[in-house]
């Protein structure tokens, strides 16, 4: 009986310790990155396409794992059509025509992969590189902050009708389908006139749409681009994107939880790149300020910059801030980890530092590690007022200079890394004399 009691107490001790240690950053008693993610996608050969997707898909269609599909040019799912993708299916974006897939407003995508059979959008080239193909666009009729609520994508997509690239409306519960256990690799083509595509663009997507367990790796543009809408995001991974990992704009109302951004100073492009870029508009004159402006509520995020020599990379300008918060936006983050940036956060210089502004910008129970500075106003070097505000014990933020090897469980594992906070190990010995 005594041994049973000891074992029970030990289990409770370990359980409570794991819970306490993992409350910051991504959480889970198992590493939820396993087994569906892929950190070396350039080493994977998906074979030759057996089917071609092109033009408009105007009737309900299902893609099967037994085939490999080629996106030839700009492909649109239109006319209230549902595109269903079987778990394990591979879709290759054509390099020559910079293939892309757009789920038009009113249509749906059901891409419901599994942990052992994720759905993969990728490059078909033998030497894969960021920007090999376009990306995935999902359009809905949830609100934006623009006049009239509706807008069109501005990426130069070759659509037969403007309605195929239109998004926005009044339906916060808009349902555009399911995207779960999906990988998007080597997307983000560059166009001369319109700039870079993104890995996944969610434009006017509503609350009923399910976006979970998505990994976007080696994207030439933003990994995730949220334009308006009202959407919940969970267990997302952005890996070594060239621009931003998560960009929010045009009145996006977003809850994002248990998600990861892994930056590399050696993979970023010439533009300033961040884990999170939160803005309300590109042009202020386009925005209706009677509507909800961009608002992001983040919880249990891990934002990490992986560097061979962080001090040197910061010195030569390869490392930027992790989070940028623009004027007229709201942003809160809780129970998260920000590690290895210069600095951790920058606020737009047009934001007035007063109680009204700071009530909309919250940092609580967050672990700032190995950052050259914490929270600053753009162009200002003195951040004493912000340090005093967010350093208040009421916010329960933590500041440290720990190396990655002591901060994360197994960051160096090239095949199956584990970005959860390191847990103190508890060893137990049986006493056979009891």
TrEMBL record:
Residues 1-20 form the signal peptide. It comes from the Bacteria. Keywords: Signal. PANTHER family: LIPL48 (PTHR41339), SECRETED PROTEIN (PTHR41339:SF1). This is T9SS C-terminal target domain-containing protein. It comes from Psychroserpens ponticola.
């Amino acid at each position: 009986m005594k041994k049973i009691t000891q074992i029970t107490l030990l289990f409770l001790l370990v359980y409570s310790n794991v819970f306490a240690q993992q409350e910051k950053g991504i959480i889970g008693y198992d590493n939820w990155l396993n087994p569906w993610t892929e950190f070396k996608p350039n080493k994977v050969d998906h074979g030759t396409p057996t089917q071609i997707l092109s033009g408009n898909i105007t009737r309900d269609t299902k893609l099967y794992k037994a085939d490999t599909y080629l996106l030839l040019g700009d492909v649109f799912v239109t006319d209230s059509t549902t595109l269903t993708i079987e778990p394990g299916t591979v879709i290759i974006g054509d390099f020559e025509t910079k293939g892309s897939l757009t789920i038009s407003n009113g249509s749906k995508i059901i891409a419901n992969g599994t942990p052992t059979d994720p759905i993969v959008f990728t490059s078909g080239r033998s030497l894969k590189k960021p920007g090999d193909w376009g990306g995935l666009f999902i359009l809905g009729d949830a609100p934006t902050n623009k006049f009239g609520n509706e807008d069109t994508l501005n990426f130069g997509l070759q659509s037969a009708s403007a309605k195929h690239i239109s998004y926005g409306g009044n339906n916060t519960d808009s349902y555009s389908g399911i995207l779960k256990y999906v990988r998007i690799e080597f997307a983000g083509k560059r166009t001369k006139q319109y700039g870079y595509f993104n890995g996944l663009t969610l434009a006017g997507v509503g609350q009923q749409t399910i976006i979970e367990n998505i990994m976007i790796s080696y994207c030439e543009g933003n990994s995730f681009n949220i334009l308006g809408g009202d959407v919940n995001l969970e267990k997302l991974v952005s890996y070594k994107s060239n621009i931003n990992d998560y960009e929010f704009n045009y009145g996006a109302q977003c809850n994002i939880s248990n998600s990861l951004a892994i930056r590399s100073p050696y993979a970023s492009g010439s533009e300033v790149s961040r884990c999170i870029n939160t803005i309300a508009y590109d042009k202020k004159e386009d925005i209706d300020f009677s509507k909800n402006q961009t608002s992001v509520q983040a919880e249990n995020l891990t934002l990490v910059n992986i560097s061979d020599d962080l001090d040197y990379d910061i010195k030569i300008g390869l490392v930027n801030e992790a989070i940028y918060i623009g004027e007229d936006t709201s942003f809160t983050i809780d129970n998260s980890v920000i590690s290895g940036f210069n600095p951790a956060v920058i606020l737009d210089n047009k934001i007035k530092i007063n109680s009204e502004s700071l009530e909309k910008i919250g940092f609580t129970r967050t672990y700032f590690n190995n950052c050259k500075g914490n929270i600053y106003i753009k162009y200002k070097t003195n951040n004493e007022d912000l340090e005093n505000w967010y350093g208040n014990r009421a916010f329960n933020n933590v500041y440290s200079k720990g190396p990655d090897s002591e901060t994360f469980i197994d960051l160096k594992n090239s095949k199956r890394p584990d970005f959860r906070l390191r847990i103190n190990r508890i060893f137990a010995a049986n006493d056979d004399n009891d």
